[in-house]
Amino acid sequence: MTTELLIAFIAFAFVTSVTPGPNNMMLLASGVNFGVRRSVPHMLGISLGFMVLVIAVGLGLGQLFEQFPPLYNALRYAGAAYLLYLAWKIARSGAPQANADSRSKPFTFLQAAAFQWVNPKAWVMAIGAITTYTPQQGFLFNVVVIAALFALVNCPSVGLWTVAGSLLRRWLENPLRLRVFNIGMALLLVASLYPILIDVKGTL
Fold first, then answer.
1. Domain segments of the chain as ranges
2. pTM of structure
3. Does the record's keyword annotation contain Transmembrane helix (predicted)?
């Protein structure tokens, strides 16, 4: 991989990781409701789960969906349904102090990693990374390098949203403000589905 291509890819990884999407909306809400420390497994699950997804796409899963579009459509619809469920849970979240001792818990590492497989934005990012930035010479090695670099860039990028959420915790101690915030995050999570589900088919 040339230096120019590497720089371009890192820029792509940063921009796609730090811009709003389902993962970042959930991490912002997690930072508010649970704080940074309890959200660390969620952040690591996103980055490492996405790395596995990129490798899988590079090894041929993207081509499989290209040959059998109904499989990909089924994945999109399952992802959309799950995101709607998560939005409902976020909208119903209580105060941070209450969450610390209640049944409400942040995402675990495995939950966050598994979520990448039904996250439409993650698929768009993975397919873009493999098709645009992975040289054909030494392809398998480059797939692993691309996936590892994406994880390294992704983790601190999504972590910014968690930190932002934690900084809002004190301001959101007011129950009404927290309620409005959580409902707003839930609506943004639902809204994040629209452009992804409309455009993702054209990226395959």
1. 3-203
2. 0.75
3. yes
